[in-house]
């Protein structure tokens, strides 16, 4: 304790460490956001306190004296240790949540609402990782997944939080040449825009409900549903519209429904998938997602 009473002022020790590390008063000043003369003043105070010279001052440069060379590693180590401790305290009040989800869901539904979650829970840092594959909580650093489909994620806690309605959609320009068909059977004459999936089901469910056979229809397989939406907007064909994601495009008239009264929903939707023992922040995010989904039904 007695040695600490004779410790030079911390701000002066920081100036000595920076000057010794850079071997430059000017670069130390730039790092510490003070003037070069202030650095020189701090260095002189430490030298007077210790009773030794720490630097050899030359016309255009400085070098460390043996005393300075001996002191520098102690200062660097001490400052690094203090910085590490401060950062640990700073981070201790925060929690990270890694969420695996479809890029299209993030783009068109989650991101426009995410500021509300951040405002409610500023202590949770979100990391969004786009993916469509089945999540393996045992081998992946994922805390919560959002998946699209009809369920069936074994070994997890999975529940649907947002029901999806689907129907064929296209751009008005694509529909203009012959007008928008009103019969589902007319779809077989046009290219269908498909989103890659390990277990595709949208067109199959819709065609079964509509009582039509689309096996002979031309198709264009695209990697991501965001690309499917863009291709439909550009008049490249007919997409299966997920109405929670394309609501703005329908409101603006950028997309139109291809058939009248053709929406299908029932078991299709977005699912919260959690490990058997989820983190607290994952439970918080799952609850918020459910609340937002309920609110979205009244938008």
UniProtKB/TrEMBL annotation:
One of its GO terms (molecular function) is sequence-specific DNA binding. InterPro entries: LysR-type_TF_proteobact-type, LysR_HTH_N, LysR_subst-bd, WH-like_DNA-bd_sf, WH_DNA-bd_sf. One of its GO terms (biological process) is DNA-templated transcription. The keyword Transcription regulation applies. Keywords: DNA-binding, Transcription, Transcription regulation. SUPFAM superfamilies: Periplasmic binding protein-like II, Winged helix' DNA-binding domain. Pfam families: HTH_1 (PF00126), LysR_substrate (PF03466). Belongs to the LysR transcriptional regulatory family. This is LysR family transcriptional regulator.
